[in-house]
Prior knowledge:
- With 255 residues, the protein is an alpha/beta fold.
- The protein has 12 helices and 6 strands.
- It has helices at 4-9, 25-39, 58-61, 74-84, 96-102, 104-113, 158-165, 178-190, 204-210, 216-226, 230-233, 238-251; strands spanning 46-50, 65-68, 89-95, 118-123, 169-174, 195-200.
Amino acid sequence: MASPIIKKYIREGTLPHIWCGGCGHGIIMRNLAVAIENLGIDRDKVCLVSGIGCSSRIAGYMDFNTLHTTHGRAVAFATGVKVANPDMTVIVAAGDGDISAIGGNHLIHAARRNIDLTVIVMNNDIYGMTGGQFSPTTPMGDLATTAPYGNVDRPFDIAKLSVGAGATYAAKGSAYHVKDTTKFIQEGIAHKGFAIIDCVSSCPTYYGRKNKKGGAVEMMELQKKNFVPERLLERLEPEWIEEYDKTIRAMKGGK
């Protein structure tokens, strides 16, 4: 039996969804639904905008006012919706390639203007829908169909990029850390100004298989073991934090 959250916020006629087994996007979709429920926002006062990609299918599944737009242009469309309907809660759902490659300029200028939008990035480090090409967040050295010998580019930190451009709320979550990510989405929606939540999502089909990360369970384990909630940092020993920082820099191709 479907949960009340699903029955209320998901267009059941669109199910089953097309996301691969083990994809983290469905978890993040539920996080968004729970955040809206917790905030008590009338779903008729919500507009969800997406572009093109695996993540962008969310606009067809969720029972809000929705726009499924062109590749990289979701923020531009969402800006128009917000300007025309300032009382509307406008949310953008995008993938890492969609939001930070072809849509990169729209992202930084919306952040610069501090437009009252909430952007949820379903970040799986790859172009999942179009064949597994590397994206602006693919870690250095990782494989993709367009990087058969390993990616040579340094990856974007989408949250930090947005803050540098002028975003007034930014957070990082993951498909594994459900409660934290739901809280971040909820805070982002409640925030008056430009908010972005960069959510690590699993892609066992292209990214995981190509880089020998294992299946869906193993990729969730990676998130569990390698992501530290900010609230726990103050409890950690300084030596451990220094070692953790080194590990993260190495993952990003730094020293």
